[in-house]
TrEMBL record:
It comes from the Eukaryota. Residues 28-49 are annotated as: Disordered. Signal peptide: none annotated. This is biotin synthase. [2Fe-2S] cluster binds at residues 147, 180, 240, 312. Pathway: Cofactor biosynthesis; biotin biosynthesis; biotin from 7,8-diaminononanoate: step 2/2. Its cofactor is [4Fe-4S] cluster; [2Fe-2S] cluster. One of its GO terms (biological process) is biotin biosynthetic process. Keywords: 2Fe-2S, 4Fe-4S, Biotin biosynthesis, Iron, Iron-sulfur, Metal-binding, S-adenosyl-L-methionine, Transferase. GO terms for cellular component: mitochondrion. Gene3D superfamilies: Aldolase class I. GO terms for molecular function: 2 iron, 2 sulfur cluster binding; 4 iron, 4 sulfur cluster binding; biotin synthase activity; metal ion binding.
Amino acid sequence: MVGIATKALRPTVIAPLVRGTRGHAVAVDPPYLPPTPSQQSTQSRPRYVDGDVRHDWRRSEIQKIFDAPLMESIYRAATVHRMHQDASRVQLCTLMNIKTGGCSEDCKYCSQSSSYKTPTKASRLVDIDPVIKAAKEAKANGSTRFCMGAAWRDLAGRKSGFEKILKMVSEVRGMGMEVCTTLGMLSPEQARRLKEAGLSAYNHNLDTSREFYPEVITSRTYDERLATIEAVREAGISVCSGGILGLGEQDEDRVGLIHEVSRLPQHPESFPVNTLVPIEGTPLENNDPVKVHTVLRTIATARIVMPKTIIRLAAGRHTFSETEQAMAFMAGANAIFTGEKMLTTPCSGWDEDKAMLGRWGLRGQRSFEDAESVATPMMTKEQQALHGVSY
């Protein structure tokens, strides 16, 4: 056992011995304190039950969910999903790249980083008219959230660009759509101005666990990302924060990401689950594809841990079959990105996605609150004949 004291252990003692360690520090769960006899006598049900919205998850609890038999986890997640949300609804979202390439960040997965030679060429911030045109097209095709991404580290020195983006936000929100942006790090004042312009949500992914993060990004710290999330939340904007699978992380890192966001003062309004799309010229271009069972485990675990959060099946979805995507919906995913492209990576088109949802009896989700019945809609006789099904 020489030298074992110099290595930080995983949240459980057995995990490092079975899976191996990578040599980076790992957060350790606080000790579990069982309820006192007086507390037990007043409890009419177990301390926690599925469907409870909690912010005190222990990392080892989440790991047990992740490691459970997959089909049982999916059934459990599907049950939790129906406690808080309409499981027949899937939100269609469209993401537009409003400023491409030239980013000073060194994210090893990103084709827009100026640190790597990739096919992506840098461009200026687009004008407002093409954005409005794209948003109208997205709305006409059933998308109820329109997202805009700019390849920036932050907004420092971009006063005119920021003013233009505020105008974009206001115009898109005026169309009755949810509007989301991802612009890098934000100050509290910048978040406040985006809120005043009508921003619905701000995307700022943590990407992976705190422990594995330095293996992927060195130009921005984990705590800096959390500071932007705090500024967004304090401004009254919904937080959209998730991660990317396939960066070279282990299962414990996928659990670590979910654990991190589950302990925020408010769970993220949405949790994107991206799978790496390897880009030529980036350090991760030769990473192995993510297996579908890993995606399903991540979605099911996130759904159980964060019952009210929208789980967005995001980048890389086009690499999975329709049946695999249907399993993701069963596991608790209830939003997808659709349209012509996701920033610089491929995306399934509107017609293809609407046909897929129709075959599975799913329907689009409206913007903002949806007070419709949670009952799954029955197909008309014409629809049954078209799809070859019957009740």
